[in-house]
Input
Amino acid sequence: MKETQTEQVPRRKNIPLLKRKRFIFAGAIVLMAIAFLAYIGISHFATYDITVSQFVAKADSLSGKEVRVVGQVVPGSVNQDTKNFILSFTIADGNVSLPVVYQGVVPDTFKEGTDIVVEGKSDQQGVFHASQLITKCPSKYEPSG
Output
């Protein structure tokens, strides 16, 4: 008769408590770093649209900060320097207005009386320096001509 030998499976060595604590601590640090970077990224890129009236009311606290302002291009206020790609105009909502200067390519849909969103910063003189222009589309298509 054959004798069966039982092989003993080597037991896993218990990971010392100190190594486990180091692993947990390092994991917590990594998670906190990821959470911090996500928070910074979201807060940096989170800009909300405010109206011209809201912007003018808070102009002192918003000076030099990146904001998006919604308004309507005032008819007769548009001046364009096509040689230097500089566009200056005024946006308003109701009786409150804001002078805007933009340097760059002007969207084809930009015209007087159009609803627009300008993104940028204001200076100490109250002039808004737009880094981006976004024209709002009308709710109904109207062919030009």
In short: Helices lie at 17-45, 52-57, 59-62. The mean pLDDT is 83. The chain is about 25% helix and 30% strand.
